[in-house]
Structure to design on (329 residues):
């Protein structure tokens, strides 16, 4: 298990972390402000635990939205994950509701399943199931592995439309992990540490899920030795051959990096957040309009927060995919 020391690189990149009260003109979801206040997270009443919640500030009653449950990795937190994959920056533009929960031991286990289900249930009840256009899981590292474990359980397979794996294991054929991957031992550590396994590629993972959903895989270039050129998920949905889209070029850095692992840092684990370029590969014309895609962020590792334009590109893929599983319940 690794511990992230949060480094906020660009908290004001696209606005502050909390919105002024005057900015909210729509309905109030779960009595929470439309932009999460990290000092006042939303309580989940059945367990007494809390989570962060972001949603459009001008949300209208009965408006269709896309709901994302955004899971942090081992040793991390909901606060860090919210900024690592900052879909909240695009909540108003793409009508997103984003919940970022916390694991109390900083690692997800089956003991957290009821808490996560309760978050989903409470948000869906407030929105109305018919107004949830699509529901996606997103997870970084061990949060991605947890999403993979959960997605075909009875609760989630009846609700979920898609899964974004953020360095959390690729479904449809795993890339080979770089031999230098894992948290680097630090010069100022009190005792030698064995770098933990990041859930990024060919580490031991659960079997391939068998239920149906759209799938987007994102990884840093230096975490893996290369991306597979085919996907069994794409084959399952009779998609076309992989197509490379125009690269996404970011001139701004992401919000966060692992500031506690830079003495020394490694390119496999991740260095400081910085601008960059990302390759985007899609498998077109999938059955039912499903989205199957791979994203490789060049010259990045496991922990640099996603830059704004590649975050938006992933959000575009999410909202372009079909949904409606909750609406059909």
């Amino acid at each position: 298990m690794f511990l992230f020391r949060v480094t906020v690189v660009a908290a004001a990149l696209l606005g502050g972390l909390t919105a002024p009260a005057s900015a909210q003109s729509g309905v109030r979801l779960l009595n929470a402000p439309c932009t999460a206040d990290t000092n006042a997270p939303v309580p989940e009443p059945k367990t007494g635990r809390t989570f962060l919640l972001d949603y459009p500030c001008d949300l209208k009653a009965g408006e269709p939205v896309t709901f994302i449950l955004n899971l942090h990795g081992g040793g991390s937190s909901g606060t860090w994950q919210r900024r690592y994959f900052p879909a909240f920056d695009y909540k108003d533009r793409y009508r997103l509701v984003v919940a970022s929960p916390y694991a109390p031991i900083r690692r997800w286990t089956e003991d957290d399943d009821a808490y996560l289900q309760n978050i989903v249930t409470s948000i869906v009840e407030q929105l109305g199931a018919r107004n949830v256009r699509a529901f996606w899981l997103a997870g970084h590292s061990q949060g991605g592995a947890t999403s993979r474990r959960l997605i075909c359980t009875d609760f989630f397979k009846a609700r979920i439309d898609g899964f974004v794996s953020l360095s959390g294991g690729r479904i449809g054929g795993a890339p080979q992990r770089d031999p230098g991957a894992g948290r680097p031992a630090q010069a100022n550590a009190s005792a030698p540490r064995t770098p933990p396994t990041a859930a990024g590629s060919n580490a031991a993972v659960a079997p391939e899920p068998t239920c149906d959903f759209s799938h987007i895989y994102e990884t840093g270039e230096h975490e893996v030795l290369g991306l597979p050129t085919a996907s069994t998920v794409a084959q399952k949905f009779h998609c076309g051959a992989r197509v490379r889209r125009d690269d996404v070029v970011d001139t701004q850095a992401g919000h966060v990096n692992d500031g506690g692992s830079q003495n020394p840092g490694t390119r496999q684990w991740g260095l400081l957040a910085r601008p960059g370029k990302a390759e985007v590969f899609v498998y077109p014309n999938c059955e039912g309009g499903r989205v199957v895609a791979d994203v490789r962020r060049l010259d990045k590792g496991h922990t640099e927060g996603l830059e704004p334009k590649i975050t938006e590109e992933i959000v575009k893929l999410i909202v372009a995919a079909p949904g409606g599983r909750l609406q059909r319940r």
